[in-house]
Amino acid sequence: MARGKLILIEGLDRTGKSTQTEKLVKSLGDNALLVKFPERSTQIGGLIDQYLTNPEFLLPDQAIHLLFSANRWEIAESMKRSLLKGQHVVMDRYVYSGVAYSAAKDTKGMDLNWCLQPDKGLLKPDLTLFLTNSDSELRQGFGEERYECTDFQDKVRGQFAAIFDTLEDPDYKSKHIKFLDTTHKTIEEVHQLVRAVTSDYIQGHADVNEFIYF
Ligand code: Z5A
Ligand code: MG
Fold first, then answer.
1. Which residue ranges have their beta carbon within 6 Å of ligand 1?
2. pLDDT digits (tens, 9 = 90+) for 80-123
3. What is the distance in A from the centroid of ligand 1 to the CA of 13?
4. What is the pTM of this model?
5. Handedness of CA 83, 87, 90, 91 (dihedral sign)
6. Is 213 within a domain?
7. Which helix (H) or strand (E) holds 171?
8. Which atom of ligand 1 is nearest to the CA of 13?
9. In this structure, is residue 194 part of a structural domain?
């Protein structure tokens, strides 16, 4: 049986990632599973949730970085089992967020390469849809959690660009990463784009069964 595809929706804060992952999973039907990172319901996820929502819950930058990565590792095996059963797995954020947000802190020694190391060996997405837009701060909710402020988001934007320009393998990038500009598009218009790119990818790679790894 053909394995399912690992599909990632990434992007800057409030660009509609959660909205679009939910709609994509629904449109793929029973054969798709949604996985959101951070997965806040696990023990490690509980610590991450406290860190993000409680300004008095302090952790060294290295420690919270490793917790975000550990949160991916604790779900890695069950994701792989689902893929092997033929289910598509659609992720809301993943390794690229992990690297970009931590590297944006400018903490001594925590450069892009350092940040990527704990995720080495995780499954790499078959398809990443990276959402960009220039009006996201107008949307409801910006500013409620740690990291949700314009200055820091500008740094995160720079780190995402550096990941895709310098860290990621150019051959992988050209085949497996698509950038979608959502500026001034409605939720439904973005969904149609996301759906079209995903369907094309799934149809074009139906017989590819080997996994790719970070
Ligand atoms: N983080 C990290 O540091 N390290 C890691 O390894 C990982 C994450 C995995 C929490 O993530 C924080 O964790 C995050 C990165 C860090 N910090 N920041 N910033 P999260 O994923 O849980 O964050 P969130 O609360 O879900 O926010 P978000 O993901 O940034 O938002 P979103 O999912 O992109 O947007 P949305 O919830 O789908 O939409 C936001 C609003 O806009 C909502 O009211 C929608 O109805 C509206 N919306 C969406 N699309 C549109 C369009 N097209 N038009 C108009 N309005 C729209
Ligand atoms: Mg979200």
1. 13-19, 37-38, 52, 68, 93, 97-98, 101, 139-141, 147-148, 182, 185-187, 190
2. 999 999 999 999 999 999 999 999 999 999 999 999 999 999 99
3. 5
4. 0.97
5. negative
6. no
7. helix 170-176
8. 30
9. yes
